Task: inverse folding
């Protein structure tokens, strides 16, 4: 089956979902709540999404995104369904998916993989600035102050700044923008089942990959749906340069999801799809790997590969124009520097 035909399956499902009532902030983030199937919902904050299950006894929520979104979502859940959030299941610890959990701390228990808590610990004080931060350190003092910060360091300085001195040191930059990530109350090793209001939800560890060592997916068995974040996006090419030195581990983690029993795939980024959409994402990575490897064997340069490896079957995917050349670059670097 051609990949673009597979991708359209997910896009058709997404179109049906997006036909549901949408809530959009006038002068702020684009936000919405749509029903995927009976009692199961997907909530949007710009290009980030969470999934949650409503039961008579409360809500099981997968991911929190940030504090402002969580405050909005808490109000929406209360006004629409009249029940509190009882469980928060974390996909992983990264700031753009796990911040803001404290909003639900008055009613919820928090669950994550056993590797999650260690990622919240501040590294030693003498940790140097990582490369992406060091290049901003204009005065060479080993820290980033507000005048030097750009991009995410500027936008989220308060989330990095553990000691409240208005600067980001090496330890804080290495740890990440995690000041508003609430630590889990319960951790698990391989798989855990949460039961609430007669419904059961599973959270499963999908393995250690370069993206993170605490990545989990959330399975809603009765609703036949799965929620996955970052390492699988549907209808969207991989993020920029594909930082995946452990490519085999990444592909195996995708296959783990394909082995699950579900009809609806609800990703943290991209469109809603199905099992074939998950397979299409893996096929993209495998085709990219094979075509770049063939070009390397033929002595082609990165620039030549970026011209020739067009991945045309995926041209209707989100960010294809901007990220495909970066995907080729990332795969080239992976195959020339890291054996697999």
Result:
């Amino acid at each position: 089956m051609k990949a673009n035909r597979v991708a359209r399956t997910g896009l058709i499902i997404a179109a049906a979902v997006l036909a549901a009532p949408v809530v959009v902030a006038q002068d702020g983030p684009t936000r919405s709540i749509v029903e995927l199937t009976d009692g199961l919902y997907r909530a949007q904050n710009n290009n980030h999404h969470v999934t949650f299950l409503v039961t008579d006894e409360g809500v099981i929520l997968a991911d929190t995104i940030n504090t402002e979104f969580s405050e909005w979502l808490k109000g929406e859940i209360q006004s629409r369904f009249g029940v509190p959030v009882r469980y928060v299941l974390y996909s992983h610890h990264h700031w753009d998916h796990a911040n803001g959990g404290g909003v639900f701390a008055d009613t919820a228990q928090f669950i994550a993989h056993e590797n999650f808590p260690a990622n919240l610990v501040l590294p030693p004080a003498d940790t140097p600035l990582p490369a992406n931060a060091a290049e901003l350190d204009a005065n060479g003092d080993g820290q980033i102050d507000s005048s030097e910060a750009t991009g995410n360091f500027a936008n989220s300085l308060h989330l990095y700044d553990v000691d409240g001195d208005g600067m980001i040191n090496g330890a804080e930059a290495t740890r990440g923008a995690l000041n508003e990530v609430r630590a889990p109350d319960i951790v698990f090793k391989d798989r855990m089942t949460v039961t609430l209001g007669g419904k059961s939800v599973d959270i499963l560890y999908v393995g250690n990959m370069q993206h993170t060592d605490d990545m989990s997916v959330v399975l809603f068995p009765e609703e036949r749906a799965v929620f996955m974040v970052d390492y699988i996006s549907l209808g969207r090419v991989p993020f920029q340069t594909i930082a995946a030195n452990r490519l085999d581990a990444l592909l195996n983690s995708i296959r783990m999801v394909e082995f699950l029993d579900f009809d609806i795939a609800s990703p943290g980024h991209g469109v809603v799809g199905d099992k074939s959409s998950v397979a299409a994402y893996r096929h993209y990575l495998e085709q990219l790997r094979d075509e770049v490897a063939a070009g390397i064997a033929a002595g082609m340069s990165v620039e030549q590969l970026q011209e020739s490896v067009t991945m045309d079957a995926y041209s209707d995917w989100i960010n294809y124009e901007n990220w495909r050349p970066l995907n080729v670059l990332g795969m080239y670097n992976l195959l020339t520097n890291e054996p697999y």
The chain is about 35% helix and 20% strand. The domain at 3-116+183-230 is CATH 3.60.15.10 (Metallo-beta-lactamase; Chain A). The two ends are 27 Å apart (CA to CA). The longest helix spans residues 275-297.
